[in-house]
Amino acid sequence: MSEFAPLLRAENVVVEYGSKRKPNRVLHEVSLEVGDGECVGLVGESGSGKSTLGKAILGLVPVASGKITFDGRDITHLSGRARRDLAADIQVVFQDPYGSLNPMMTIGDILSEPLSTTGVSHREGRSIVSEMLERVSLPASVIDRYPNEFSGGQRQRIAIARALVRKPRLIICDEPVSALDLTTQATVLELLIELQRDTGVSYLFVSHDLGVVRSICHRVAVMYRGNLVEIGDGDQVTRDPQHAYSQRLLAASPVADPVLQAKRREAWLALRVSA
Ligand SMILES: Nc1ncnc2c1ncn2[C@@H]1O[C@H](COP(=O)(O)OP(=O)(O)OP(=O)(O)O)[C@@H](O)[C@H]1O
Question: Which SMART domains does this chain map to (predicted)?
Answer without folding.
Answer: AAA (SM00382)
